[in-house]
Amino acid sequence: MSVFLKANWENIVMANYEIAPAILEKYLPKGIELDLYNGKAYVSLVGFMFKNTKIFNVPIFKFGTFEEINLRFYVSRKVGNKIRRGVVFINETVPYKAVAWLANALYKEHYTTIPTRHHWDYTNEHKEIKYEWRVNKKWNSIELVAEKEKKVMVKNSFESFIFEHYYGYTKYNKTTTQEYQIAHPSWLINEITDYKIDCDFEMMYGNDFAVLDQTQPTSIFLAEGSAIEINWKRHKI
Length: 237
Known about the structure:
By secondary structure, the chain is mainly beta.
């Protein structure tokens, strides 16, 4: 199977919010179910860096390194006796129109283009990671301080639930869902010591997610990241 996209995903920040399942129902692609953790549904505000991006193994140079900000939730699909655990994106934001156009044109994704920037600062013991994106002349942000020491995720922990979903699902239309696979190793994580989030969820993601403006995250995680691959072929279900 040919690989459509290769890249490095680095310093992946996940701020995780409990949310009423009813809010997410209308965003569910056909044939897909919500994936709950201890009976609760979650959405994650995500910030990370795309680096060294290649399309069909060809570097895209000028557009190959950029920040992505997205809002996603967690789903599953039963195939035979196996469960495929994946994510659905409410919105994905990048700074380059060409990148957004390609993803939307080829795969009917939900990319938008707005200014983004980031700041990383490392000391001997800590990492300071900040991602920013501008909406209506206001810079939103997610930032944290984390221990520099890397740790393995505990199996069946909340961290592993959030990070270890290896399929993506897109609502192609009312009757068709696209499924694609994301390949990467299990990521190492860093313990968070402090964080700050300044996000206008209603402005960014619409009225359905205005509730998050008055909601504190259940948790916030940082993963080191790795090289990733996304397959070209998408299955319609």
